[in-house]
Amino acid sequence: MIGPAQPSPQPSPCVQGEGEEPRAALRHAKLPPGRWCVAVSGGADSVALLRLLHARGDLHLHVAHLDHQLRGDDSTGDARFVADLCAAMGIRATIALRSDIESALPDPPANPSARYRAARLELFRRVVREQQLDGVALAHHADDQAETILQRLIRGSSIEGLCGMRPCTNIGDLHVYRPLLSVRRQVLRDYLAGLQQPWREDASNASRHYLRNRLRQLLAGRPELVDGLLRLAGAAQSLRQWVSDVTPAPATTGNIPIAKLAALPGPVARDLARRWLVEVGATEALLDGRAIGRLVEMATDAASAGRQDFPGGIRIARRSGRLWRVQPAGI
What we know:
alpha/beta; single chain; six-stranded mixed beta sheet; 2 domains; Uridine Diphospho-n-acetylenolpyruvylglucosamine Reductase, domain 3; Rossmann fold
């Protein structure tokens, strides 16, 4: 049996103006008019995003939902809920099974979480391509941003990582927009409650097995930490912008002089390393602080490995005073 959608809670009395804050965030984010895929899991955040975008008259929407097949009838119920919601709103939807999408991945990651993420991205790419859309809109919000920053802080992330998720980015050839990053989780739930719009709750979100869930539960009881983490992200973004402004343009010849990279101040060297890796074919979304640090180390420490692999299936070699992109098979 497919379980019913979870009822919405009553609106919080502190929220001023039904739906005003999320709508203002969408205006501020300036989601471009056009044809967009909207990722909808059935949870409150993605349902709120869909309702907000549907209220605009300059967007053509197509929903994508991946049935992860991990929670039995609950997963099936999520898919049915999304399909019924889209039918009621007059929005076309693509509902896909994770097993079908994973079977088409050329090199699926061994880690389950990474594999599920790869399957979602592959579904979004497929829908964007087949429906001739401009990109995909995701429902990450301010609390998600704070959780991401805290998780990266614990793992010793660089300034780039502490900037958090970007409102607009590219993952390979997929254009990704996150128009709700300035909106708090409870505001979205209050907005749905005001519309009497139900949503689905994923019981696995309460499990303490996952670090992300433990951080979410910690921050739920410490709202001042959320504010502090978001301020940290803002400071990191300002520093990133300054570094970007002073970083020289990367070479476009497939190699970079070691002396040029080694002579730069640390943050500038890392930014140039990141830009150059992207220029020669690395996957930008997977370039974390460790990967960028390895490239800088190749330029500053002669004892480091002279050939190393980087995200995107590229290999970098050190020779003749330069770093070169070479084929994975080597030269």
